[in-house]
C-alpha cells in the first residue's frame, strides 16, 4: 500500500511539473477547433503518464474516430466541431449501473485573445451517483492566440468539488453541477461563463 501511495505521489508531482509546460496547438485555417485542442492535449501525455487509464482510453477513442474506425462495442464518441464539444461514453452491459463519461469543450474569452479548454472526467456515474476513481478530475487549459500554445491553469471562479458531477456544455456556455443530498435527492446548480470567469 505504501509503495502504491508513493508511486501515486511521484506520478502526481511529475504531472504537476508537466502541467507548467506550454503545449503547442497545431491547426489549419484561421483558428483551431475542438479536434485540434484534443490532439494537442492527448499528444502531451505519454502512454504511461501518471497511470491515467482514463486519458489513454479517451485518446484511443479519439484516434479511432480520426481514422474512421468503429468504436469498441458499447462505446460512443461524439465530435461536435460546430459547438466545440467532445463526448466519450462507455456503457458495459455487464455493469449496467455504471456509465463512464469524459468530455472536452472550450470557451472564447471576452478579450478575443484567449480560449479556455476543459477536460472533464467527473461526469461518470454508478447507480446514479458520482463515480470516483484515481483519475477523477477536471482540468483547464488557457490557449493564447498569439503564441498558439495552451497551458494548464486554474479556471477563474471554478472550485472543484469531488463529491459532485460536472457536465460541460455542448450548447450554450454554462457548466451544470449535480450534487447528491443525504436524503437521496439531488440538486443542480449552474456555473455561468461570462467571458472572463465562472459565476454561480
What would you say this structure looks like, in words?
This protein has 200 residues and is of the alpha+beta class. It contains 3 helices and 13 strands. Strand 6 (125-126) and strand 7 (129-130) form a beta hairpin. The protein is globular and about 50 Å long.
Break the fold down into its secondary structure elements and pairings:
Layout: H1 2-19, E1 23-24, H2 34-43, H3 53-66, E2 75-80, E3 85-91, E4 98-108, E5 114-120, E6 125-126, E7 129-130, E8 138-144, E9 149-153, E10 165-167, E11 175-180, E12 186-193, E13 198-199
In short:
With 200 residues, the protein is an alpha+beta fold. The protein has three helices and 13 strands. Strand 6 and strand 7 form a beta hairpin.
Strand content: 25-35%
Number of helices: 3
Mean pLDDT: 88
Q: Helicity level, as a percent range? A: 10-25%
* SS class: alpha+beta
Q: How many beta-strand runs? A: 13
What is the H/E order?
HEHHEEEEEEEEEEEE
Span between termini: 39 Å
Provide the low-confidence segments as ranges: 1-19
Taken from the alpha-carbon principal axes, the silhouette is globular
For the biggest sheet, the summary is:
9 strands, antiparallel
**Cα-atom Rg, whole angstroms?**
17 Å
Amino acid at each position: 500500500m505504501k509503495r502504491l501511495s508513493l508511486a501515486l505521489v511521484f506520478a502526481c508531482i511529475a504531472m504537476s511539473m508537466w502541467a507548467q509546460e506550454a503545449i503547442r496547438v497545431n491547426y489549419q485555417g484561421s483558428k483551431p477547433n475542438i479536434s485540434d485542442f484534443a490532439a494537442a492535449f492527448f499528444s502531451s501525455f505519454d502512454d504511461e503518464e501518471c497511470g491515467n487509464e482514463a486519458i489513454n482510453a479517451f485518446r484511443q477513442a479519439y484516434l479511432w474516430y480520426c481514422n474512421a474506425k468503429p468504436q469498441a462495442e458499447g462505446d460512443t464518441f461524439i465530435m461536435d466541431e460546430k459547438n466545440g464539444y467532445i463526448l466519450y461514453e462507455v456503457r458495459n452491459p455487464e455493469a449496467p449501473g455504471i456509465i463512464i463519461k469524459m468530455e472536452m469543450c472550450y470557451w472564447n474569452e471576452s478579450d478575443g485573445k484567449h480560449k479556455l479548454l476543459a477536460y472533464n472526467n467527473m461526469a461518470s456515474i454508478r447507480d446514479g451517483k458520482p463515480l470516483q476513481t484515481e483519475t477523477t478530475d477536471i482540468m483547464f487549459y488557457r490557449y493564447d492566440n498569439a503564441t498558439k500554445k495552451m497551458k494548464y491553469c486554474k479556471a477563474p471562479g471554478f472550485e472543484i468539488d469531488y463529491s459532485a458531477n460536472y457536465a460541460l456544455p455542448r450548447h450554450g456556455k454554462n457548466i451544470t453541477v449535480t450534487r447528491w443530498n443525504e436524503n437521496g435527492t439531488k440538486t443542480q446548480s449552474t456555473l455561468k461563463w461570462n467571458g472572463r470567469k465562472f459565476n454561480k
